[in-house]
Amino acid sequence: MSYEVHHLNEIWDAAKNEALEIFKNDHIQIGILLLTPNTRLPETGFSVHENFHEFAYIIDGEVIFGTPKKTTYLKAGDFMYNRPGTPHYTENALDVSAKILWFLVPDRV
């Protein structure tokens, strides 16, 4: 295993069931999430980003993205958008981990 692959695996391990921010400036936050099998984030209730547009790209696996009004099933290659202030959760109901790349962009209203 090369150093780069080993280091990348360590980064994904740090993002296990926790959104790991890997870049941030005044215009965007970028992070990753490794959602293990049969895990929901948050465990109960919803997350809310009051002043941010949220985007996510499913790199690997499948997840359920839920809001109080809608449930969406996403698979590798899918891209998702969530409006500022919309309560939501992400769930991995499968037996394999899912890798997610996420972005938060400030609402410039």
UniProtKB/TrEMBL annotation:
<feature type="domain" description="Cupin type-2">
    <location>
        <begin position="46"/>
        <end position="103"/>
    </location>
</feature>
<dbReference type="InterPro" id="IPR011051">
    <property type="entry name" value="RmlC_Cupin_sf"/>
</dbReference>
<protein>
    <recommendedName>
        <fullName>Cupin type-2 domain-containing protein</fullName>
    </recommendedName>
</protein>
<dbReference type="InterPro" id="IPR014710">
    <property type="entry name" value="RmlC-like_jellyroll"/>
</dbReference>
<dbReference type="Pfam" id="PF07883">
    <property type="entry name" value="Cupin_2"/>
</dbReference>
<dbReference type="InterPro" id="IPR013096">
    <property type="entry name" value="Cupin_2"/>
</dbReference>
